[in-house]
Amino acid sequence: MFNELDSTKPLPVGVRWVCAAGAAALTLTLVAMVFFAGAPASGLSGEVATRLPQSGVENPVTAVLLNFRSYDTLLEIAVLLVVVVALVPAGTTSANSADWFTSLRLGAVDPMSVGFAGLLAPIIVVVAGYLLWVGASRPGGAFQAGALLAATGILLSLIARQMPNFCRLPARLLLVAGLLVFILVGLIVSLATGAFLHFPQDFAGVLILLIEAAATLSIAAALLLFYSGLAQTEPAR
Amino acid sequence: MTQDMLYSICGLLLFGIGLYRLIAAPRILLKVLAVNIQGVGVFMLLVATAYPHSDPVPHAMVLTGIVVAVAATALALSLYCRIHELQAGSGTEP
Predict the structure, then answer these.
(1) Domains annotated on chain B, with CATH
(2) Nearest-by-Cβ selection for A2 from B8, B61, B86
(3) Interatomic CA distance for residues A110 and A201, integer angstroms
(4) For A11-15, A108-112, A220-224, which range has the lowest pLDDT when averaged over its residues?
């Protein structure tokens, strides 16, 4: 019943030319609009620069992400969690829910990779911690650090031929920690300042670091779950 | 033509390539990849537009967008895998 959805038969040549012409026309229109629109307005850089000292961090991108527009980041972590909820059954249907790890159906691993991963993993973890910390003043932050941690997790999982079993309660807590800490901090500061996610200026830096640390762990766990959920699916055909 | 204009136009071209493949590619996997390429094009346009003013708001939006794009791709791929599992289960050749 899904054959129409995923056919291997290419479209007729004539239809493809029409598609190409349509896409090209739209693209050229957009290019012309960008080209002749002139210099874009200066945006919000002035406002951000004015308010930056009140944000608790020195990096304007982090200030926008975690302070000025923290709702965006909160909802983004919620989106990540929604996909996690959708993927948990896919990665765990065959797993015994009491096990900490589920094994992957992979071939033997060569000793060179094992040694190299052992060398690489601690370094990546330290770099991830550095990226999390440096996000306050320079490019970096929770997402970059989380992506690095997830990469380490995937590397180690492939070497060990095991994936964490995300059915276990601690693993699930790790997955929701980012959103949970974010909402709790938002509610607690609302007692002090009267508005959800309105950080008091003196504590903003510490609170942002706390949220980012929790978000880093959750993002890393979620990305690892995305990978393992897809890796444990039966290969197509 | 300034440098950021060049990047903007490259982003739009990526968007166009992705749009064509989204419509014309026969397989779902290729369509998912095409949507990702479209997304990269949009991110590139946003960053290039914000560059002359070093405006941090589009940069933050792109960071958010990348994470959402990864999540959406993971969901699409898992649905794709599920379709193939169902096909294998029902015994029909795709």
Answers:
(1) 3-90 (1.10.287.3510)
(2) B86
(3) 53
(4) A108-112
